[in-house]
Amino acid sequence: MTTTTAMTGRELRLEGHLDPHLSRWLWLVKMFLAIPHFIVLAFLWIGFIVATAIAGVAILITGRYPRTLFDFNVGVLRWNWRVGFYVWAALGTDKYPPFTLAARADYPAQFDISYTGRLSRGLVLVKWALAIPHLLIAGLLLADLLPYPWAISNQGSGLFHPSSGYSVLNLIVVLAGVCLLINRRYPPTLLNLVLGINRWLYQVLTYVALMHDDYPSFRSPAQPLEDVGPDGGSRGPTRPHHNMKLALGITQPLPIVGFRVEQRLPLGGVSLEPGDHGIGD
Question: How far apart are the C-alpha atoms of 12 and 24, rounded to whole Å?
């Protein structure tokens, strides 16, 4: 399964390729198998925060995000997404994540964002405030909702435990894991849902991390749904990514800036295609 994000003003790409034959049982122990990654990511996120703070000062002075710091932060987000796709954020692959900041074309989870040359100096000081509505929603999605079983047993014992509960996103992923356990099939609806949530979260995160000036949308960028076959593997998108034609019939072009909107009758489908049909045309 492949899902790609491309947003106006920058290129942010988040992909997840669903393994065709996911194990019924492996997801039950992935949290423990990924512990080495969690340890490394703890240090990488500290570096991410420090790099973002330094980049903020540089943007205030020069209007540019230092390329070295930008590449490092992209690498941290890429590493985080690979681990997330493997375990807590999707359970979409059984392939163990590599220990690298660099892009790996052979891994099922991909993340990248294009470098923006010039950034607003003034926005550096207010992006956190502007993003508060998004951060509140992200908090609802990622905050602890139900405690882990071991967290309940450790209450009052004084024992340290690194995390205390399942978030909304975790519960959706666990539901997908239960479906794998029962019939060895990842429900396509859940798959598109978790990928949509992750696309939106990374859209917000990159904005707050000062990596671009495009204010995030309050919804996940529209993507073609994937058709997951009976064996759990992807049979490809149900409609093309760049040209979303939903019906066949008579074409009636409507002028909109930068796009040609085609109403296809009698089924009423709509497609958006890049074109030269401006309002004044």
Answer: 32
Burial class of 266 by CB neighbour count within 10 A (0 to 12, 13 to 18, 19+) = exposed
Q: How many helices (H) and strands (E) does the chain have?
A: 8, 9
Q: Which residues does 227 contact at the CB level (< 8 Å), separation at least 6? A: 188, 234, 235, 236, 237, 238
Angle at 235 between CA 237 and CA 186, to 5 degrees: 100
Dihedral sign from CA coordinates of 211, 216, 219, 224: negative
Q: Which residues of 51-84 are buried (b: 16+ CB within 10 A; e: fewer)?
A: bbeebbebbeeeebbeeebbebbbbbbbbbbbbb
Sign of the Cα pseudo-torsion (143, 112, 237, 182, in order): negative
CB 257 within 8 A of CB 278: yes
For residue 191, give Cα distances in angstroms to 16, 109, 127, 251: 9, 13, 31, 33
Q: Which contiguous run of DSSP H or E holds residue 169?
A: helix 168-183
Q: Which two three-digit tokens encode residue 210?
A: 């000062």
Instruction: Copy the structure tokens of residue 164.
Output: 């205390």
- Residue 9 Cα to chain centre, angstroms: 18
> What does each of the 281 residues of the chain score in pLDDT, given as a tens digit?
444 343 433 678 999 999 988 999 999 999 999 999 999 999 999 999 999 999 999 999 999 999 999 999 999 999 999 999 999 999 999 999 999 999 999 999 999 999 988 999 999 999 999 999 999 999 888 887 676 665 555 555 454 454 567 788 889 999 999 999 998 899 998 999 999 999 999 999 999 999 999 998 877 654 444 545 444 554 444 443 333 222 222 233 333 333 333 333 333 333 333 444 333 44
